[in-house]
Amino acid sequence: MTETRELEVLVRERLDDVRFRVVDPDKRSRFQGSDLIKLMRIVTHRKTYATPHGKGEEEWQAVADLLNEAVTASFSLRACRDKVTALLREHKRASAASRRASGIAERHTDISDLIEAYLQLKTRFDEQQRETKAKKTRKAK
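Predicted structure:
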């Protein structure tokens, strides 16, 4: 059973590196492995989780613009946002499965390390926000 999963992972990794790139802004581009690494670096650097309410679309457009410049592609803000969400969801699922399975060594890749760093920064930011809110609530009483 695990051999088939490993085979599926290998096939997916190889398909991710298939060169398909359209720079026409009216057409879609597909994310490749190197694009995902650059996307996660940009998102982590820009700290999209700290964007004030109502400014999210502008922030994700800036992320898409930076990514498009870096890889000469045409990714929309929605494609970038949805891909990051999907990567985070997949990482959480994989790490939960890894915690349940005993005796299995985790495989660390560049993308998984970047996703983990992003999640740690986001968690730290959320904790600081909660502490700030709690202090304001205590002062008000």
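Summary: The chain has one domain: 2-140.
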